[in-house]
């Protein structure tokens, strides 16, 4: 930190009698002028880059020229650290000029953060290792002990993890009390358990049977394996090198990683469901919330259509209206925005015009009945029996004597082809689910967030 003293103020006067004298008031005015004329409309830059953009002819004030102001600021900066942004440096310089004393902002009573389990082990074994290996340097001993810790049995590691958890809880309590007593801002809560468990590191002794979450996609799987293979040798160049390797891979090689990742997701889903099923309700809820687990959707017994079976048309007038209007709406709009726009148009549509869509539904249902009868006749007696057993409501469309009923719009049932009644907002919500379903087919929908 820079401390203003009389030597700095009078240095220019001693060197050149004709140069105006820099007083304390002048120095404060220089900082204020710099703040006023900071480069605008730029993202935060380093000190050197921001200084190049300063227009010193605007910063200058009488009786000093632009060159003199710049020179004086540079002389002040000689005694200040520069790894912050220019606005931060100006704030510190202003504070130092107002209170030119050497002060410390860190309290000596502040609780000290406990070291992690691995470092605890290294500190404990350091002296013994030095005696046994006097030829090794401290960094070499540290690496040796780190490898020894990694090879320890899980039971021994769990003891270090348990002690670290107790120390961490005590530290958080002391820090919280310290901040309150000193009227300081309370520290943000950090999810230590979640962070360590996510990486599969220390802290995983509890709920050991919980399966490890797989990488989200093939590239993440590649990065994980590449990191293990390369080790710490690449250092800061790891991301650059790994990204280049991934770009150079062929589509076939990338597809292998994607396929492996999909298999890992399926395996994870099965293991997770098996693990959660063996727990009682309270314990299951606790683990889901504590570990922030995304619970897989329950596998539903969806009816699989038979080859050639015609699809039953929708009974929603709104869906017909949506399909018709979607042709004239800007494709650049997001799916939900398009739906909202069509919803508004549907609300404004009079009932007399809505009847046109009712007629379209009746006509499509008439065609569906004919197609269903023709297709049903192509089935063997056994297939016909099985089909009617699974879909008993289809009999009303297959009977020759059955007249075409003018059915009202109905709510959707569990079966895809059963009659539907839709009213008001429910009719509109159906189109949202249909549109979103078509969009989600392109994405992985294996997991839903458990709220």
Automatic annotation (TrEMBL):
Statement: the UniProt record of this protein carries the keyword Lyase: no
PROSITE patterns in the cross-refs: HMG_BOX_2
Spans annotated as Disordered: 191-218, 408-451
Main subcellular localisation: nucleus
Gene Ontology molecular function, alphabetical: DNA binding
Domain HMG box positions: 111-179, 212-276, 310-376
Recorded coiled-coil stretches: 247-285
Annotated keywords: Coiled coil, DNA-binding, Nucleus
Compartments in which it is found: Nucleus
UniProt-listed InterPro entries: HMG_box_dom, HMG_box_dom_sf, UBF1
Bias (Acidic residues): 414-451
Database matches in SMART domains: HMG (SM00398)
Cellular component, GO, one term: nucleus
Chain intervals with Basic and acidic residues compositional bias: 204-215
DNA-binding region range list: 111-179, 212-276, 310-376
Gene3D superfamilies: High mobility group box domain
Identification of the protein by name: Nucleolar transcription factor 1-like
Source species of the chain: Cyprinodon variegatus
